[in-house]
Amino acid sequence: MSRPAQLAAFERLLNIMDDLRAQCPWDKKQTLQSLRHLTIEETYELGDAILDNDLQEVKKELGDLLLHIVFYAKIGSETGDFDIADVCHEICEKLIHRHPHIYGDVTVADEEEVKQNWEKLKLKEGKKSVLEGVPRSLPAMVKASRIQDKVKGVGFDWEQPEQVWEKVQEELGELQHEVATADHDRIESEFGDVLFSMINYARFLNVNPEDALERTNKKFIKRFQHLEKRATETGKKLADMTLAEMDVFWEEAKRM
Hints:
- This protein is an all-alpha fold.
- Helix content is 77%, strand content 0%.
């Protein structure tokens, strides 16, 4: 699609948003706060579509997210705080400023140097900590990944994957020690350390831990639903089956 056609499509969405805000009872009532949880849901739905590699669904979910961005900008224009042009200009200026190797005279060797420069530039913009950009409301696993990625950008990182694996083993040993003490708070603390170190190790393996766990979730759901289906076909209830009986259908699901 040509650039004029793309701009025309975006203008069409802006016009529809104007109509909805003026005429639709539901759209009239929405605020930044009321839309927030819906935006989070839409983001997760986009994530699901990406994991499933369903490109048609990705397209649909991107549209839903774009609608939310336009909606927020419309509300901002009504209060006089910002509009969609301000939103676009803000991100454009940020991108230009943080890509001096494209729009300036800085030379970079690779992707890693780009990321390091990005974090240094953010500190120059007035941020007191490289971790300020990590949203407080992120799910814990995603937050851990972002924290580790951020500090890596300023050089605070392990040098070799083997070192990280040694840390994982160290944390597992500490967890086992606390399990023996039966102190719940200390067990929880050490369990968190194990998860944090495993997420760090995943980064060195170039594995996204959130994606990896979600793939396992989907795999487990599929196998368990097969187990339920097969139990129903044989006229049995799962609650009445032994683990050995259930394991037969579980192994069948794995082979499938």
